Amino acid sequence: MSSLNTTTAALSARVQLPTQSSRDDVDDFVAANLTTMSTMDPADPDRDAMRSDVICACLPMVRRAAARFAGRGESLDDLVQVATVGLIKAVDRFDAGRETPFVNYAMPTILGEVKRHFRDKSWSVRVSRARQELYLEISRLIPALAQDLGRSPTVCDLAERLGITESEVLAGIDCGQAHTARSLSTPVGDDDGAVLSDVLGAPDERLESVADRQALHEALADVPERERQILMLRFFANMTQSEIAERVGVSQMHVSRLLSRTLADLRERLLVEE
């Protein structure tokens, strides 16, 4: 952008443009130069100078085109530079042998270049072109539909007008969230110095065990009372099998068999539910 800005400024400084008192004078100036350029050798240095004069003469048209897109998250200076690229392409591709006025050819080219910039360069997250166009269409439709209906349009209203499903409308609206990303250093709240990164959540390693604990709780409810007591004494009271046998009134070997069988049953049930 900076190199193009410098080039544009230099071009403006070197050429005396027609006065703005008559737009017809500018149109005639541009048409005459483009016609002359079409008969000249591309390597002729005079042709390059004439090309620069044409570009500078059309810069007010570039600024008017760029101003249409002001307030959409891009600075006007950047939009002017993008529009200038479109103007340069129009000058280089224009066929002076056709009867079409240059402005009728150049303006769609300039506007197309700016729209292409918004489509390809201004999105923080890359999304499909179809979704981008749907989001832009929805954005244009909402104010028009609100004026017609006298209220904010619903998703159903938008879907009916566009001839698409409500889920597609929601997907197009969600797509707009990818247009501009927020910096993690963005201030949040009052003047306490907090930034966005301070209030974002972090992975909780214990969260994954919540479902396992709930499933185990439900499985234990089906375990017989004696086996459940043995499990509690072994894994929560940290008692040995001999101490459990003495507390329950069975042999240590029997406690071992009951533990093994109960744990196998629980493991099988939990794995099946998973």
Explained architecture:
The chain starts with a helix and ends with a helix. The longest helix is centred in the last third of the chain and has 22 residues, at 252-273. The radius of gyration is 36 Å and the shape is elongated. Mean pLDDT is 81; it is low at 6-21. It is mostly helical and 274 residues long. It has helices at 2-14, 23-38, 45-57, 59-67, 76-93, 102-120, 129-149, 155-162, 166-175, 196-199, 208-220, 225-235, 241-248, 252-273. It is built from 14 helices and no strands. α2 (23-38) packs antiparallel against α3 and α11 (208-220) packs across α14.
In terms of quaternary structure, what is this?
Answer: single chain
| Shape, per Cα inertia axes | elongated
Q: Structural class from helices and strands?
A: mainly alpha
User: Can you tell me the CATH architecture of the largest domain?
Assistant: Up-down Bundle
The number of domains is 3
Total number of strands:
0
Named CATH topology of the largest domain: Four Helix Bundle (Hemerythrin (Met), subunit A)
For the sheet with most strands, the description reads:
none
H-E string: HHHHHHHHHHHHHH
* Alpha carbon gyration radius: 36 Å
Q: Kindly state the mean pLDDT as a whole number?
A: 81
Count of helical segments? 14
Distance between the termini: 56 Å
Q: Which residue ranges are poorly predicted, with pLDDT under 50 across at least 5 consecutive positions?
A: 6-21
CATH class of the largest domain: Mainly Alpha
| Range of helix content | 55-70%
Characteristics:
274 residues; mainly alpha; Four Helix Bundle (Hemerythrin (Met), subunit A); Arc Repressor Mutant, subunit A; 68% helix; elongated
